[in-house]
C-alpha cells in the first residue's frame, strides 16, 4: 500500500498498517487512520432556524433583501421554490418569481 498518509509526527513516508492503527517505523508514532485521513465532514446547509436544507426545498425569506444594483427589494415572506445548494458566501441558488435567478444566504431564509 503506497497510499498511506505520511507520519503526522515526523512526516516520514514509511507508514505501515498494524491492525486498525498506522505505525511510523521512523519515529515509532502510532495513530488511528480514521482520525488522520477521515474525509472532512460534508457541508450541511441550514436555514435560519437550524433546519437542514436540501436541493429542491421551498423556503421563505425572513428578511427584506435588496437586489444589488437596483432599487428593488424582495420582501420578507417571499416564497422561493426549488432551491439549489451551492458553495460560497451566498450558498443558495434559486429563481424568484418576478426577479429571476438569485443567490441567497441560508441565514436569511427558513424552510417553508
Ligand atoms: Zn514518524
Describe the structure.
With 112 residues, the protein is mainly β. The model has no long low-confidence stretch (mean pLDDT 90). The longest helix has 4 residues, at 33-36. It is rod-shaped and about 65 Å long. Helices cover 4% and strands 29% of the residues. The chain binds zinc ion (ZN). Zinc ion is lined by residues 7, 9-10, 12, 24, 26-27, 29.
Assembly type of the shown chains?
Answer: single chain
- Share of residues in strands: 25-35%
What's the mean pLDDT score?
Answer: 90
Report the end-to-end length measured between terminal Cα atoms: 49 Å
Main pleated-sheet profile: 3 strands, antiparallel
Structure class = mainly beta
The number of distinct helices, counting runs of at least 4 residues, comes to 1
Helical proportion?
Answer: under 10%
Bound compounds: zinc ion
- Principal-axis shape: rod-shaped
Radius of gyration: 23 Å
Structure summary, number of beta strands: 11
What order do the SSEs take from the amino end to the carboxyl end, as H and E? Answer: EEEHEEEEEEEE
Strand order of the largest sheet: 1-2-3
Which residues form runs of ≥5 with pLDDT under 50?
A: none
Topology:
Blueprint: E1 16-18, E2 21-23, E3 30-31, H1 33-36, E4 59-61, E5 65-66, E6 73-74, E7 79-80, E8 84-85, E9 92-96, E10 100-104, E11 109-111
Antiparallel strand pairs: 1-2, 2-3, 4-7, 4-11, 5-6, 8-9, 9-10
Features:
1 helix; 112 residues; single chain; mainly beta; 4% helix; three-stranded antiparallel sheet; binds zinc ion
Amino acid at each position: 500500500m503506497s497510499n498511506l498518509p505520511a507520519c503526522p509526527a515526523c512526516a516520514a513516508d514509511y507508514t505501515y498498517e498494524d491492525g486498525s492503527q498506522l505505525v511510523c517505523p521512523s519515529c515509532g508514532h502510532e495513530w488511528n487512520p480514521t482520525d488522520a485521513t477521515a474525509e472532512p465532514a460534508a457541508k450541511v446547509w441550514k436555514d435560519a432556524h437550524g433546519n437542514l436544507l436540501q436541493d429542491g426545498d421551498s423556503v421563505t425569506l425572513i428578511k427584506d433583501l435588496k437586489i444589488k444594483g437596483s432599487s428593488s427589494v424582495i420582501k420578507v415572506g417571499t416564497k422561493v421554490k426549488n432551491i439549489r445548494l451551492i458553495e460560497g458566501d451566498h450558498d443558495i441558488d434559486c429563481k424568484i418569481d418576478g426577479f429571476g435567478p438569485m443567490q441567497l444566504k441560508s441565514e436569511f431564509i427558513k424552510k417553508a
